[in-house]
Amino acid sequence: MTTTLEHTATTTGLLRGEWVKARSLRSTWYVLGGSLVGMVLLGLLFTSTADTGGPSGSGGGPPGVDFAQPLTLALAGYNLAQLAMGVLGVLLVTGEYTSGTIRSTFAAAPRRWPVVAAKAAVLGALVLVVAAAGALAAYAVGSAVVDGMPGLAEDGVLRVVLGTALYLTAITLLGSALGWLLRSTAGAVATLFGLVFLLPVLGGLLPGDWGPDVVRWLPSSAGGSLLRLTTTADQFAPWTGFAVLLGYVAVGLAAAVWRLRTRDA
Amino acid sequence: MIELQGLTKRYGERLAVDDVTVTVRPGVVTGFLGPNGAGKSTTMRMVLGLDRPTAGTALVNGRPYAEHRDPLREVGALLEARALHPGRTARAHLQALAATAGLPRARVDTVLELAGLTAVAGKRVGGFSLGMGQRLGVATALLGDPATVVLDEPVNGLDPDGVLWIRTLARRLAAEGRTVFFSSHLMAEMAVTADHLVVMGRGRLVADVPTGEFIRRAGGDGVRVRSPRAGELAGLLTGPDVVVESAERGVLLVRGVPAEVVGDRAAEAGIALHELTPVQASLEEAFMALTADEREYRTEEQPA
After folding, report:
1. Assembly ipTM
2. Hey, which of A18, A231, B74, B275 has its CA 20 to 30 A from B36?
3. What residue intervals traverse the membrane (chain A) (predicted)?
4. CATH class belonging to B221-279
5. CATH match of B2-213 with 3.10.180.10
6. Nearest C-alpha of chain A: how many angstroms from B5?
């Protein structure tokens, strides 16, 4: 008898299954809704206080926000959104492990990689749409509030706005890869935050002659180049940087598949 | 049909499942018995392709689980209580699985109805009682209308109503010609539900026998006789397979002779009987007897 490895668990079926799983949890909509509102409100906060040098009145605010550039001010909410969306990426995976539904999932679709791919595709599409809406809304609100906002047709502006959505999608997928690898919500969230927030800060403590060379390779610094109108010498060019971030995502997901194949579910 | 061939699973130093070879046949309820930690769940997980055997094979309906085109139509499993996301509704849980496995959407309503969950299908699983969660687990197992049903400890924590429901369901599924493989550490439950028993102790296969024979092997059925002239009666009940024991004065436990014969012999001799009761050895007794053997076997096996 020949063994067929062709399963009825089709691509559409897997995608639909993952879509049902994502949409049937309230947390998905809380996170996505919260990110959307947060992006717009923070954009509004920063742009409306731009004249006085930011919310604290002294040019303060989150690191990397250039108060001379209305576009980055309007989109500054991405800093918060990446936290929430990254956690969503983690949760949609680790939730299957903590609840035990992962076993039903793999019983229904025994091959591991299509499940990882389907989850990433559904999650990615969902976050991309919401993040793009958030970025465009934040840009629109910012344009209404502040003078001197560059138009979408100007060089690099559309790239920055839609790049914000691409960056957030990549961070979310990085979260899902960490979820597959670590299977624990706390572990994966801590690792993601460490990678995205902590390492760039620690990297700043490295000696000046080689520290920046390390920092620019970090996922958030490399991917962050896509969100800058102009990049400096110690940063990657926008699309190169984003490609580096996608490299991390690809390596993470590939490692996840390899782990799933070698480890008991 | 489940065929295990030399199935072995090692976790580091510990052999959770040790060279188990057994066939679970369709049409009957096969009880999978053993104390907690005997390796029952690990065996079931290997059947489902979730854990990979260290050695040996586990085939369901002729193939390894993962090589089936439609695995959920071949095998449905309840692997542990509450493998359910608390934030999802019962219906969404089943819909997601049906979609993933490519099963028709109508099956979701069918199994909800079958498990008696139609009224709470839209409620979040987090609010379910243990019994409702278990029913949803069984509904999940039956989603693909599978030829083989694997239920790990399905009666755990159920109220009498739920226990009866599982028992009736297991028997009905077997009567429909399906393979029903049902684990429990509750032996009394197995005695009434299972036709055939597969018994594990410390990872090893201890027995693979019809339930009745399992009980007989461990001492078998007997007849309790109470009579003022018990000693005299004992002398009349002789035969090649007859064993007569007396635990207390005036009471005999007779094995190897049916109650009718005991009564007739007593009447012929004019001996008055005050009690004549057929007794069945309990599954607990049978199980203890078997695991005691297993212990002796292990001691003998140690290298000199």
Report:
1. 0.85
2. B74
3. 29-50, 70-95, 116-140, 160-182, 189-208, 236-258
4. alpha beta
5. no
6. 19
